[in-house]
Amino acid sequence: MTEKKGQGSNRKLFFKSGLDDQIAENFRLLRTNLHFIDNKPNRVVIVTSTIPKEGKSSVASNYAMSEAITGKKVLIIDCDIRRPRAHTSFGIKIEAGLSDVLIGKKDVEDVILKNIEENLDLLPSKHLDNNVTEIFLSKGMSKILDKLKIIYDIIILDTPPLTVATDAVLLAELADGIIFVVAYDMITKKELEHSNTLIKRSKANLYGVVMNKIDKSGYSYGNYGMYDYTYRYYNDYINEK
Length: 241
Hints:
The protein has 241 residues and is of the alpha/beta class. The protein has a single domain, classed as Rossmann fold (3-Layer(aba) Sandwich). 39% of the residues lie in helices and 17% in strands. Strands 3-4-2-5-1-6-7 form a 7-stranded mixed sheet, with helices on both faces. Helix 2 crosses helix 3. The longest helix has 17 residues, at 21-37. The model is unreliable at 2-10 and 219-234 (pLDDT under 50).
């Protein structure tokens, strides 16, 4: 989905910056595919990956924006309480988050950041070390989502990687489906099989897999079919005057 970047690079919001028309078009394709797979109102969508740095938060943020620009009311919830990062995609500093709501310190309405982009809100998270799994196993998250589904057309849960925590599969019963992000040439077959096993055991509805961080310079027509050809065709088409 997105090109491979150097270590420490900032996440990009392609719908906001317009830096790469081809990547933005890929997110439109993701939006369209999900529309045909499941177009029920008030959907809850999980975005997860196998290991850190596969780009799941970038995919979650850009997919959210792709839905918001169509006029849908969208909320991103940062469920990665151990290592919250969703707010950094938007350059926002936060004082409280989901963890404060789940442990009863804050009301959810007081924590949601409204209109970080048009039609897009964010429920961020502050770091929490202890009892995260137990918090998600409680009924608190279910009650929060039931309340928010009345307000939002789509709620996106940005969850931890599956090798770090099983929060995504714990939350799967509260969601309508999972987007599984796989970064090109970053994980082993064994790790991928482990993640697949966890998702199957949870009986989650897997919407599909997003291949991310593809280094298109490593592709050739002979070895990888039409990828390089269609990428160049797209760029020639979109840039033709």
